[in-house]
Amino acid sequence: MIFSSISFLFFFLPCLLFCYFFVPQKGKNVVLLLFSLFFYYFGEKNTLFLLLTICFVNYFLGRTIEKSQKKIWFISGIVINICLLFYYKYTNFFLETAFSLLHQKAPFLNIVLPLGISFFTFQNISYLCDVYKKEVPSQKNFFTYTLYITLFPQLIAGPIVRYKDINKELENRKENSKTFSEGIARLIIGLGKKVILADGMYYFSTQLLQEDMSFLSYWFVALSFLFQIYYDFSGYSDMAIGLGKMFGFHFKENFDYPLIATSITDFWKRWHISLTSFLKDYVYIPLGGNRTTRAKNIRNLSIVWFLTGFWHGASWNFILWGMYFFCLLIIEKFLLKKYLKKGLFSRIYTLFFICISFVLFHFTDINELAVFLKGMFTITFKNNGMAFYYLKNYGMLFLFAILGCSPYLKNTIKKLQKGKERKWLNILSVGYLLLLFLLAVAKIVSNSFQPFIYFRF
Amino acid sequence: MKEKFLSITFVGILFIFFALGIIFKDQKISLLERRYLTTKETLNKDPFTNLDAYLSDQFPFRNTFLSLYSFFDRVILGNKENNNIYKKGKVLIEKNYPLQEKNIEKFSQKINTIAEKYLNKDNRVFYALLPDKSYFLEEKEYQKLDFQKLIKKVEKEIVFPYIDLIPLFQLQDYYNTDIHLKQEAYQKVVEVLAKNYNFSLQNIFWEQQKNNNFYGSSYAKGAYFAKPEELNFYTNAWTEQADVWHLEYGKKKVYDQEELASLDAYNVFLSGPSAYVEINSPNALSEKELILFRDSFGSSLAPLLLPYYKKITLIDLRYTSMDKIEQYLDFNHQDVLFLYSTLLVNKSNLLK
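^ Those are the sequences you sent over. The predicted structure of the assembly is below.
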């Protein structure tokens, strides 16, 4: 089940709201847990038992680590989680790579990838680490721990919510009308980002890719990949954060206007924050971080960026994508840092390299990727008319996408809310949100199914 | 206050649509979308896989939502096309682009092969093209194929004479919501055919049969707001007395009025898509026979020719190959017309 579907919005959500707000406080977690399990079962029937088993193993390990404080339990926990992730996500990739080195055809194992395994594996690891480091007490109640892992807003596509960030809210939280309505607003904005902007960009690139491509077409398509991935994933994060708020949870932000970043370093402070902070806290810093020799620092960075790429998918293009950022970050760290300050040049520089990065991200077929990159850097003026025709058709969509990726509108509205126009602005903003919701529903009704990109991971 | 209003309205919308979904009876077909909708029965088979399709198909006021987004997409986002459909004023126009040169070659080769293999000197043979609606679009604003190039290429490759019908038509001759020409527009075609096939036109009375509730295929694809329009067909003694035989369906009528309530009301003309149809017109004014190689456009032309031809045979090569129907045909002295819309010429990979 995805958030941008009729079954979620008009079947799952009303049923959940009804049950959740009509049961006494004690029963709320039970309702959330049951609905979350149903949510998961709806998406993937065969792996629910596996998910529950993983929850139990990690719950048990958390309790044992806390009681015994033995490293062996902690290491066992990390190894078990990583092995499961590798088995389910990467076995076929490794087989294929190994057999291709031997010039043989690899057998394909029919392994069902459990939905959201990349996200809940990292959540389990962060939990075990934090319990081991005594940053947070272990969860005594198995059902509460299972609720943490299976909580539907963040279960299958993140953000990676750490146990220590919501452990208190799991036990005791208060929903109120303010956070409930803030959650609704966030959910609607996320829905609009996904179904109008991200899917619109998908149609743009799909249509243009079917035509004779020109130099400009390649760049327009590359730009649309960037917007599509950004609005798809940040839209999903908005919906997750919004849904969390509706039920009294406060998840950390996952995006902070990454497309206005002034350097690649800055970009990664703003993009998929829950993943980068996880890798920083649980991989980079334990390896020594930057408080070590330059050579070791470079090694640490290379490991982190290899993992960043590989986490996104069992395919070489994702590894290439991660290592591409590694190279850029090294160059910035040791050469360009002093030149990259706030300003137009820095933003253009950053956008240029990010735009290329999402071409690497898009094409899992290396040959297709090579053709596309060649097209982007072969300047010709043939067939550019086609690119302009499509840009004209989707011009407003691009305009909305550009406006949406800067905080300018949000800041302007905040300023106006402090002035005399506050009352009118409030009415307008509610009207805007409701209209956006109806438009998003209209789009979903008219849409052929378009799954979220991040469900692959 | 703002918070409460947003929360109550949002939750209200969720619950109202949830309740309406339960209260409203399942719709089995969507006449506007021309397809069968997913109903509750599919949930018995696999509820998890089919739930979303079911809820989307049975969503209350589905058609209004479909049109709402098309409106937003066209008017606010400025997107000229939706599912390859343009909207120009009230007229919905199917995009026919780009020019598929290989398909045009294939089309010409197909016709030449049939002519070479089956036709003889006694056959009077012509071919003609009917412009699709995109012919009337402005080149600067829309993606419009090079019709002159298409026609020249076909003329160059096909070995027998061409009848130029294209100047006969205007955009008003077509249905607003469908790709086809209205039947009344074919009267002009009959006049041109009379000159070429050498039969004399008579002052024949045609009675107009009206149907005011027609939504065409372009409406279903584009989902733009549009009003239903008239689909008229013309009857007289010749159409009433004609015997119609389909290879697939057996005996039928010239105008199959049951089809007016079906998914595609245009099927009223000769019961819709059919590989091979024979129409015998016992009271025709001559003994002439016509073999019409055609696409769906030909279905509404054939009835108007019944006063002039004793027998009309319609062959649709999208649904059959010549090998399969040659047993039914005996080419000798008939008039033969290859009549295709430019939509099909450019997509002739559909021909068998």
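The radius of gyration of chain B is 23 Å. The interface with chain A takes residues 1-7, 9-11, 13-15, 17-18, 21, 48, 51-52, 55-56, 59, 62, 65-66, 68-70, 72, 76-81, 98, 143, 223 of chain B (CB under 8 Å).

Shout if you want it in another format.
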